[in-house]
Amino acid sequence: MQKIIIKDIGLKDYKNAWDIQNELFQEIIAIKLANRDTENPIPTPNYFLFTKHPHTYTIGKSGDINNLLLSENQLEEKGIQFFKSNRGGDITYHGPGQLIGYPILDLDNFKTDIHVYMRNLEEVIIKTIAEYGLKGERSEGETGVWLDVGTPFARKICALGVRTSRWVTMHGFALNVSTNIGYFDHIIPCGIRGKAVTSLEVELNKKINTTEIKQKIQKHFSTVFKAEFISEALKN
């Protein structure tokens, strides 16, 4: 089984968490490049970061800025940060009550297929929320995990957006646990009109223990990716 070094970095500004990811991302790529010129290659590490962000909107590299419905002044008035990210996908919201997972993996250690990788991330969340009695689904052409797909009540509970280079990943998923859904009213989430957003607490009408959710995600990530989590201090 592949080993994944896991670290909960707590509440971080989006840019701060991005810098931490990027340092690990570049470390793996540097090892891969060095391995091309040696007969004794060094195994590449894999990382997984749990984090949460203050109120933030981020837009992917191919996103449409028109899907942000607030002006710069309105963002400042509401205390919401905005970042242009190098991940895929369009615009989304990050904030309190949301559990964010950033896997920084060398897919050469797993399977070099970005489509399979994305579906596996979705499967981790589908299996996790199933433990709470919710049927998570995929919506054709719309990345993420949804409820009641194919009905007028379809709603997204988890957004995904990643970047890969030389088969190394960064960014990841954002699961709405107790998120204030009202913040999604100021954007067209993921550029998709006419579909709602929800959270675990909205669906279950009860408080959810975040530590418990993290444990369930780790369990299912280990199963889906055939990996073992280990705790080690990150260099930074």
Task: List the main descriptive attributes of the protein structure presented here.
236 residues; alpha/beta; BirA Bifunctional Protein, domain 2; nine-stranded mixed β-sheet; three-stranded mixed β-sheet; 5 helices; 28% helix; globular
Strand and helix layout:
Blueprint: E1 2-11, H1 14-35, E2 47-52, E3 56-59, H2 72-78, E4 81-84, E5 91-94, E6 98-104, H3 114-130, E7 137-139, E8 142-147, E9 155-165, E10 168-176, E11 196-197, H4 200-204, H5 210-225, E12 227-231
Parallel strand pairs: 1-2, 1-12, 3-4, 9-11
Antiparallel strand pairs: 2-6, 3-5, 6-10, 7-8, 8-9, 9-10
Fold and architecture overview:
With 236 residues, the protein is an alpha/beta fold. The protein has one domain (2-231): BirA Bifunctional Protein, domain 2. It has helices spanning 14-35, 72-78, 114-130, 200-204, 210-225, and strands at 2-11, 47-52, 56-59, 81-84, 91-94, 98-104, 137-139, 142-147, 155-165, 168-176, 196-197, 227-231. Strands 1, 2, 6, 7, 8, 9, 10, 11 and 12 form a nine-stranded mixed beta sheet that branches. The longest helix is centred in the N-terminal third of the chain and has 22 residues, at 14-35. The protein starts with a strand and ends in a 5-residue tail after the last strand.
